Amino acid sequence: MKPAPFEYQAPAVIEEALSALAEHGEGAKLLAGGQSLIPAMNFRVVQPALLVDLNRLDDLRYIRQEGGSLSVGAMTTQRQLERDPRVAAKRPAAGAGAAVHRSPPDPQPGHAGRQPGACRSGGRVAGGGGGGPGHNEGPQPGR
User: Fold this and answer.
1) What is the tens place of the pLDDT at every residue in 23-74?
2) Most C-beta atoms within 10 A of its C-beta, which of 57, 65, 115, 129?
3) What is the H or E stretch that residue 125 is in?
4) Does any domain span residue 135?
5) DSSP assignment, residue 98?
6) What is the distance between the alpha carbons of residues 94 and 85, in angstroms, rounded to a whole number?
7) What domain range is 100 assigned to?
8) Cβ–Cβ under 8 Å, residues 9 and 53
């Protein structure tokens, strides 16, 4: 199946994205990775009037040292985390070419487009939590 018709915007600055969201309200959806949104759109479970692609918003793609912690932007990629020396210094198993680990399957139906393990564990790695299947200690984004 194909998605219902929708408008597409790929803003270059955050203000443009916020303006599009304000204008379209609940009819707008944000696209970051698309692992769960695109399949939901293809099955017409989700039918946004507007899709706002965040991938050009470089202001949301960063890793910053803030005191004794690292701050990671919303659009920072898993690859950036794996290759950043500051991440490797905080969590040696998480950086410097470490294999990508996915979160363990989520028991919540519908989470991540019903794709077990579809959510990356980067938030837990950067936040000091566990780093792979079976490691559920530490902060878990979205819960």
Assistant:
1) 999 999 999 988 999 999 999 999 999 999 999 999 999 999 998 899 999 9
2) 57
3) helix 122-127
4) no
5) P
6) 10
7) 61-127
8) yes
